[in-house]
Amino acid sequence: MSDPPRFPPILPSALTTTQKAAASEAEALVRKTFGSSFKLHSPNDALLGPFGILMYTPNAFVPYVQHLYAVLSTPLFSPRERELATLAVCAVTRAQYVDYAHKRIAISVGLTPEQVDAAATGKAEGLELERERVVYELSLEMARSFGRVEDGRWEVGERILGRESMAALVQIVAAYMYTSLLVNLAEVEVPADGAAE
Prior knowledge:
Elements: H1 17-34, H2 50-54, H3 58-72, H4 79-93, H5 96-108, H6 113-120, H7 130-144, H8 151-160, H9 163-186
Helix pairs in contact: 1-3, 4-5, 4-7, 4-9, 5-6, 7-8, 7-9
Organism: Melanomma pulvis-pyrius CBS 109.77
Protein name: Carboxymuconolactone decarboxylase-like domain-containing protein
GO molecular function: peroxiredoxin activity
């Protein structure tokens, strides 16, 4: 961790009007999508995760969150499948805050702690539903190879998920690759107590 931080948290009292509006919309969409299973604010009420670095580019902040919401709220995947895709990305990027938040979200949508821990380390252990296994394995391959998928795996994915879902899945993977880059560059750490808000 850099000292001082690469992107020091911007306290609520120092936010511009544009930053305040972006933060408010981001928080509303994050809570609508994921609930409150993880910490979104630091003890001094600054936003955590990718949102801290995005505060430095407020004009890109709201479009980023809106795009993320559009991609993640697709009815093509269950919340469990969405989180398995996200954990597959975490297994590759090792983005600490994304891993922290999405392990909690995954448990809140019904995955077991054992399934979550395995998925976060690149293993599809304990996934009994074929569709969940396919989502996870495809997501892991996409993340590891920057979107390239072997023909055999593509055929399985297209047969089990369908072409529209394959297009949506790569967007989920890409969204979390992007988020992971932000978090890794900013060296965002897990909140000290690691609890939910």
